[in-house]
Amino acid sequence: MKRIAVLLAVLFVVASAVAAAPETHKILFIRAGKLIYDADKPPIEAAEMIVIDGKVTAVGKNLEVPAGAEQLDFSHYTVLPGLVDAHIHLWTGPRAASPSVPLAALRASKAMSYALNSGVVAVRVLGSNGFIDVALANAIDEGVIPGPHIIPAGHAISIIGGHGDLWTYPSDSPFGEYYTPLHGFVNSPADAEQAVHLQVKYGAKVIKILASGGVGSPLDSPSAEQVSPEEMRVIVQQAHMDHIKVAAHVENLMTTLDALHAGVDSIEHGSELDQEAVDFMKSHNIVFVPTVYIVDNILMNGEKDQLPDFMLRKARELAVKHFPSFQLGVHNGLIIAAGSDMSYEPGKGTVLDEVITEVKYGMTPQQALVAGTKHSAELLGLNLLGTLETGKEASFIAVEGDPLSDIKTLKSVKAVVFQGKVVVALTH
Question: Which helix (H) or strand (E) holds 351?
Fold first, then answer.
């Protein structure tokens, strides 16, 4: 009995010591030459920021350094919120290749690491195969692999022979198991309802409609109307019942108007907006994701990148309407979020290029930074991102130069901090 009493006493002492041990916190103290804490507001010169356990707890000037804080000196750089890409796909290898789902996921994980290292702290994947976007989102949230926050769509909803249909096998192939609502292919409002339920069941956090034809697939024309107005209304109704937003790929005016009246939350590309469409979007707070970089990049580099002839031809025809449509949206004060439509193949374009290209075609640097931070974060429902205010997530970048005066300095990322952890460290 004495031994038991002694053992219990020892255990009590150990437990008390553990309970009394001071709680440790990860504290950062950041000095910034210029701090763009909210792209909608004037920056703070010679600012400081305190981060505790991944959250911003103080922003201002002449702040006191907390005891035990790790100090990050960006006093020669501009610090701003990490970029948010509202429209991406996933790099899974060479164009037109058909890798297995496991290999595609492994390649895409490399793409997401590249995104984070580039200063992109969140992305919305608007269409992939095999629910690899959902798997990546879960793996990143669990800390298994590095990467930004991901809002996955699962399979985009389309029609047989429409945009996103890359099936190249002969007509006598057994394609019955491929053209199903699970894979996003619909032929009726009932199919559309099932497609939404299946994407949500397997992890989609946004629904993507390929409402019109597009540039990147061989069988369709951007002028084609694909998913019917009735099908779009069902898709929006079912998604909104699950409190999930709907993004609509549209390249022509008629499809755009049908999508708007169906109640979609964002217009992707919007290559043929007119005043009626713009007025409707503005009065209903529908977000415009114009994806100007991908069109501009195809025009400049498509031949060098050996893109298929059908893509080059369609992009050239579309560009005549695409850039004026973007400028109409800017001129009318639409809510614009930045989406690159890139796959994040390592070394290739990102939302940073999108923001720069938006300035090229008429936005001010400030408007473009708002689009690439605050507006994109709001569209994705990531309310802790987009600004660096008290209580927000400490995910930010340090760049050399001032992107408010020269937007191209945005590409000179010198450091990346994600959730209060240094991902890319400043090297002198």
Answer: helix 351-360
